[in-house]
Amino acid sequence: MCGIVxxxxxxxxxxxxxxxxxxxxxxxxxxxxxxTICNAKLVINxxxxxxxxxxxxxxxxxxDGTIGIGHTRWATHGEPNTINAHPHACCNRKFALxxxxxxxNYAILKxxxxxxxxxxxxxxxxEVLVHLIEDxxxxxxxxxxxxxxxxxxxxxxxxIAVICSDEPDILITARNGSPIVLGISDGEYFVxxxxxxxxxxxxxxxxxxxxxxxxxxxxxxxxxxIDDRPVxxxxxxxxxxxxxxxxxxxxxxxxxxxMEQPQTVYDSMRGRLLEEExxxxxxxxxxxxxxxxxxxxxxxxxCGTSWHAALIGEYLIEEYVRIPVEVxxxxxxxxxxxxxxxxxxxxxxxxxxxxxxxxxxxxxxxRKGAKVLGICNVVGSTIARETDAGVYLHAGxxxxxxxxxAFTSQVTVxxxxxxxxxxxxxxxASVGRTFVxxxxxxxxxxxxxxxxxxxxxxxxxxFVHKSNFLxxxxxxxxxxxxxxxxxxxxxxxxxxxxxxxxxxxxxxxxLIDENMPVVVIATKDSxxxxxxxxxxxxxxxxxxxxxxxxxxxxxxxxxxxxxIYVPQFSEFLTPILTIIPLQLLAYYLAVKRGxxxxxxxxxxxxxxxx
Length: 610
Ligand code: F6R
Description:
Layout: E1 3-8, H1 13-24, E2 31-38, E3 41-48, H2 51-58, E4 67-73, E5 88-89, E6 95-100, H3 106-115, H4 126-140, H5 143-152, E7 158-164, E8 171-176, E9 181-185, E10 188-192, E11 204-207, E12 212-216, E13 221-225, E14 236-237, H6 253-259, H7 261-269, E15 273-274, E16 279-280, H8 289-293, E17 297-302, H9 304-320, E18 325-329, H10 330-333, E19 344-350, H11 356-367, E20 371-376, H12 382-386, E21 389-392, H13 405-423, H14 429-450, H15 453-462, E22 468-473, H16 478-492, E23 495-500, E24 517-522, H17 528-540, E25 544-550, E26 562-566, H18 574-592
Parallel strand pairs: 17-18, 17-19, 19-20, 20-21, 22-23, 22-24, 24-25, 25-26
Antiparallel strand pairs: 1-4, 1-10, 2-3, 2-4, 5-6, 6-7, 7-8, 8-12, 9-10, 9-11, 11-14, 12-13, 15-16
Helix pairs in contact: 3-4, 4-5, 7-13, 7-14, 9-13, 9-16, 13-14, 13-18, 14-18, 15-18, 16-18
The protein binds fructose -6-phosphate.
């Protein structure tokens, strides 16, 4: 989604803004721009396309402005072009504004402003807000009041930053639904939609909550609610290092993050396994564990990859804890009238902790009186803060738009939760101890699979001219088939479908001929015999089969075209292994097809609009 960065201090703002925008590139965008105040005048530069294009257009420009705002846009209203790029200015060019979110009542406001003879340049909803601020400013020449009054008229979501050439020492930012982090340093302040944009300058941050605004000058920052009540904020430390958001020698963040998984899965388990007792410890949900255990029903809600992790959670918890589990897309949950009674615990899963649909599901569940747990990666994110309790993934910043390491950490955390709950109910200590042993071997087992990447690359090379893929799995590996297919479509732009293998014969089998590659997860587990039958069905129709199989399974070689082996492992943790070859397959195929793996077309890292 859109990215926001702002600066006020004593350094030249332009390089800081450009540097911040580059850090936000991973979120996905189609155009970018910056505005500064230089010699009491607003200077705005915008470009369609990459930040590097904006940067080259600024080469040689002498801009001493020490206050400024910058934006990467992911189009919602109006096509991606230079005019629609942010910042937007008002008629008298005193105000420049950047915005992340959607102003739902912009059409009504625009009509009102047009009647007052405001001139609009763009097709965006955002431009309405800057004209509205100008309109209120004309009444009292009070910057803060004008912003406040304008925001009070909005329906929708926003994270904004605004500057005014009459007030070159004040930057105002506000949030309702779209994240804003404030970076604090000596005599200077930073504003961003994501801490990655500012971590190079400061690690001291505060987060705005909904309906709050910050009025910032070079010596202080005042935070208030939109209706003018003072707010006290905690100053927190950004928990990750700069190197975590750099490519570290890899060609793409996605590959780096796939390769990091032995470590990130380890980090998700670190300090959470109790060997002696054969159980897990999850401090963040300690106080809620009894309500979870005695809940009549657990409802997971999430989007995309996180939703796939939730499906695996359903298999795990129902199998080992025997609590009924439901999994629902957050976007559906929020717009129907789900049955949530006192016995329902809702758990949401979100890497970013900012996904608009998932956040709305949290709020809806809370409104209905449910206890809501959050499983998030981004520390301090909105979902992490708004849920009653939760567990962090500790996977570190995920920059690649296609989620990889967050998925394996989500499944790891769900498996830890399963172990903890199972040990508090029917599971014995000795069985628990074998589970703990299996957990501990995970990083080493992932490492082994990563060593097959040359093989996976060579398989990917053979399928580069195909246009469809079918992914099949059964049981706990069915969600892995869905996730493998999602990885393939989002970064290689090839059509891919995931199916429970047995469902194939109820329709998709019609698609199978010698041109259809079928990826089958066929590990030696409780569904092995069944999946071999499904493989036969594909073979009979000449489909090309790539199997993800268990090391030592020579028989499968006689049945399929290509085999990628994963180590023999305990079934309940296999999804953490079987997804790795599928991530690599999608990655190498996309690279071979020349796709922009880290910034796939039309996609954004954190979907903060509905
Ligand atoms: C796919 C992907 C998306 C996200 C989805 C939810 O690779 O990244 O499908 O999983 O947008 O995002 P979070 O987990 O941040 O709520």
